[in-house]
Design brief:
Elements: H1 2-15, E1 50-56, H2 60-63, H3 80-86, E2 88-89, E3 95-98, E4 102-105, H4 111-122, E5 130-135, E6 139-144, E7 150-153, H5 161-167, E8 180-186, E9 189-195, E10 215-218, H6 222-227, H7 234-252
Parallel strand pairs: 6-10
Antiparallel strand pairs: 1-2, 1-5, 3-4, 6-7, 8-9, 8-10
Length: 253
């Protein structure tokens, strides 16, 4: 019984203490020496994505029928309505309506695969056609204990967990760096990933490279939750301790 009380008391003390291991990023980075990145971070086209598809040729007049919008460089800060007018929105079945080619299945392809698909079909009409595709609404949402929670627009369609935190002012001291939650949805199915940014193995985590529409949540640590009143007054804590001790007594009789 005395051993149980000691263990329980030590556990309460340990919860309230921040350690070096919980705030230092990429511990023991020497283990990554020579590590070759084999993860695929190329985005996959999803339903409700908005695509800009540009078709070019030496003779631009030949590819003009394949251009929905003849000009216009897209700037930042475009609304959803402007995006859908400037690009092709993938419908709920994964298709877009493209000039000349008609209805084309695009969801489920990587950007590279889709470029090759369009290029092959358009070259049946224009032999030197070159196709470039961009995802216009590539964004990631970050919530919780970070400097500036919100939505981050990704211009080059590639962003990692560390790059995201650099964009939003890093994780606050009160955030859990060893248990970051990533919520991802593909074809209506959600998956949950956990990332420990204090571990050098984070570079091998399948959620290290973020996908469009990912939601990243940094949980508050014990100190933050306690200061916010989630654990109640000292009296309620003593009550909780008494209840747990009572349970221990019952179980050990």
């Amino acid at each position: 019984m005395r051993k149980l009380l000691v263990i329980f008391t030590f556990g309460l003390f340990a919860i309230g203490c921040a350690t070096k291991d919980s705030v230092v990023y990429f511990q023991e980075p020497e283990e990554l020496e020579g590590y070759e990145n084999v993860m695929d971070y190329e985005p996959v086209i999803q339903k409700n994505d908005v695509l800009r598809i540009n078709v070019s040729s030496i003779d631009q007049d030949l590819v003009r029928p394949f251009q929905r919008n003849s000009g216009g460089q897209l700037g930042g800060g475009l609304s959803s309505q402007n995006l859908s007018m400037s690009g092709y929105m993938v419908d709920s079945d994964g298709y877009i309506q493209f000039p000349v080619l008609g209805e084309v299945k695009v969801a489920g392809f990587t950007k590279k695969e889709l470029q090759q698909k369009f290029q092959k079909e358009i070259r049946a009409y224009v032999t030197d056609a070159v196709v470039d595709i961009r995802i216009l609404n590539f964004k990631v949402t970050v919530l919780g204990e970070v400097g500036s929670p919100g939505r981050v627009e990704v211009q080059d369609e590639r962003i990692t967990i560390p790059e995201l935190f650099a964009e939003v002012g890093d994780i606050n001291y009160n955030g859990k760096r060893e248990n970051i939650v990533v919520i991802r949805e593909v074809d209506g199915v959600k998956s949950i990933g956990r990332v420990d940014i204090t571990d050098s193995d984070v570079f091998k985590n399948p959620y290290f490279y973020l996908k469009q529409n990912d939601v990243v949540y940094v949980e508050p640590n014990y100190g933050r939750m306690k200061s916010a009143g989630f654990f109640g007054s000292p009296g309620s804590i003593l009550s909780l301790v008494s209840s747990v001790l009572g349970l221990i007594l019952i179980l050990t009789r």
